[in-house]
Task: inverse folding
């Protein structure tokens, strides 16, 4: 695995057992499980701390390029897992087991020798046995811990909205300046820029979910914000009951 | 299964290469990471589409064999695995990659079997398409954000914290002047992130159902 500053890249190829179970190959079972895994903030990987991006695919075989290349085939199928994350590999894999309460077992359950994995340490050793070396790991974004990135994204969204909603005050002389300053103080108090825990974006959310509040950008929020006076990033009350749930 | 998580696209490519070419590719990958050659990757940085990308070369013996019950791979070729997380469509990415580092592509995929070269474009497109593997589960921690959003968000956060600190005791007029300076410094970084064009088909369906329920009652 390659290190580049603090963002890391894990590439692991885990062999899937040959043979069948209940009429389907082990690789088909694995494929089915992956395809049915919940997505986005409900994904298992959303529970794993400091995961920027991760993916799974089943490599059924290598590709024949055509004559005069030689045709060859894999003797096993492989579950390919990659993760871009922040921090130490062993810590990350240990946390992956613990934060998912061992649910990761279901992903790898049909892989060779995985029945011997029973705890976080074993899981980490198993995947490290399967990792392949990255020749080049390119980081196009940044090397911040995920909590920093999510908080920064929350603030970018909230402050952009604040600037838009208060732009008129800048041209209203001394009175406008005073109102802007007061509004900004409230904004800072509400958004707590230095507090990484909250308010912040929820990992994996495909709509703007801020902790457990009404998602900004949702229909409920649009209804609520139409009567809001504050420009802060937290959400006003929804005006209709039953709509204040995150997507 | 999907290659898409919000604004991010997952590309996986697996290509064979002859054993005697591998050393050259490994030297290239090692070399571009040296300080004197980091300019070579400048094209990738300029692209600004990419969150993270990696290349791994796996020899026949390096395919993990975890038990004697598992058959040993008997392969002639080494295999290069390429993974990318980027923003935009497949076509935009491949074309941009091709435009930004055409020579780099030729070096990175040097002597891969039947690699047609990065120019002209169509054979390169066909080569990538043929050797691409579909992702079965893809996760992004911030589907709403592009790579540029992540980078600009850091600037906004740092600027905001610094400004909040220095402005708290200022008179209103001075506050306004400094506030405007802050906005000028962040003018390229402030924008609303929206789920466009489509965050995910499933979440779009959920939103549409909620709208229908709201209209119904």
Result:
């Amino acid at each position: 695995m390659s290190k580049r500053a603090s963002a890391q890249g894990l590439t692991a190829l885990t062999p899937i057992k040959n043979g069948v179970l209940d009429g389907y190959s082990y690789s088909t079972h694995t494929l089915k499980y992956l395809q049915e895994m919940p997505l986005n903030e409900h994904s298992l990987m959303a529970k794993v701390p400091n995961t920027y991006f991760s993916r799974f695919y089943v490599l059924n075989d290598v590709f024949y390029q055509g004559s005069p290349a030689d045709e060859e085939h894999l003797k096993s199928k492989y579950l390919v897992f990659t993760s871009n994350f922040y921090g130490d590999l062993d810590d990350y894999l240990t946390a992956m087991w613990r934060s998912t309460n061992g649910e990761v077992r279901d992903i790898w359950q049909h892989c060779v020798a995985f029945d011997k994995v029973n705890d976080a340490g074993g899981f980490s050793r198993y995947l490290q046995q399967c990792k392949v070396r990255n020749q080049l790991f390119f980081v196009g974004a940044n090397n911040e811990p995920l909590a920093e990135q999510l908080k920064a994204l929350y603030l970018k969204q909230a402050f952009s909205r604040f600037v838009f909603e208060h732009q008129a005050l800048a041209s209203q002389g001394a009175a406008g300046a005073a109102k802007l300053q007061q509004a900004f103080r409230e904004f800072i108090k509400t958004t707590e820029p230095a507090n990484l825990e909250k308010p912040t974006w929820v990992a994996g959310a495909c709509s703007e979910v801020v902790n457990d509040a009404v998602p900004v950008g949702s229909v409920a929020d649009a209804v609520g914000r139409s009567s809001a006076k504050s420009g802060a990033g937290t959400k006003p009350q929804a005006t209709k009951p039953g709509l204040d749930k995150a997507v | 299964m999907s290659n898409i998580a919000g604004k991010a696209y997952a590309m996986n490519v697996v290509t064979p290469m002859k054993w005697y070419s591998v050393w050259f590719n490994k030297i290239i990958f090692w070399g571009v990471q040296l300080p004197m050659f980091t300019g070579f990757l400048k094209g990738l940085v300029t692209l600004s589409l990419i969150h993270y990308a990696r290349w791994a070369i796996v020899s026949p013996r390096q395919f993990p064999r975890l038990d004697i019950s598992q058959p040993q791979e008997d392969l002639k070729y080494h295999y290069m695995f390429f993974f990318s997380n980027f923003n935009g469509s497949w076509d935009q990415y491949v074309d941009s990659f091709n435009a930004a580092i055409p020579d780099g592509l030729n070096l990175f995929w040097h002597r891969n079997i039947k690699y047609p070269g990065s120019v002209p474009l169509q054979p390169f497109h066909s080569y990538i398409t043929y050797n691409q593997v579909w992702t079965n589960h893809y996760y992004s921690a911030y589907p709403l954000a592009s790579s540029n959003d992540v980078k600009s968000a850091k600037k906004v956060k740092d600027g905001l914290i610094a400004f909040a600190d220095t402005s708290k005791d200022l008179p209103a007029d001075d506050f306004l002047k400094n506030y405007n300076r802050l906005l000028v410094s962040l003018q390229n970084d402030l924008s609303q992130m929206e789920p466009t064009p489509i965050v995910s088909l499933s979440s779009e369906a959920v939103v549409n159902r909620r709208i229908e329920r709201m209209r119904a009652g």
Observations:
- The helical segments of chain A are 26-36, 89-99, 104-108, 120-130, 146-165, 173-191, 219-225.
